[in-house]
Amino acid sequence: MSLNGKDLLTLIDWTSEEIFEVLSLAGKLKKERKEGKDHYLLKGKTLGMIFQKASTRTRISFEVAMWQLGGYALFLNPQDLQMGRGEPIKDTARVLSRYLEGIMIRTFSHQEVEELAFYSDVPVINGLTDSFHPCQALADIQTIREYKGDLKGLKVVYLGDGNNVAHSLMLACAKTGAHVVVASPPGYEPQREVVEKALQDRLDPLSQVDVTNDPRQALEGADAVYTDVWASMGQEGEQEERLKVFQPYQLTMEMLKEAKKEAVVLHCLPAHRGEEITDEVMESPRSVVWDQAENRLHAQKAVLALVMA
Ligand code: CP
Ligand code: NVA
Question: 11-132+296-307 falls under which CATH superfamily?
Answer without folding.
Answer: Aspartate/ornithine carbamoyltransferase (3.40.50.1370)
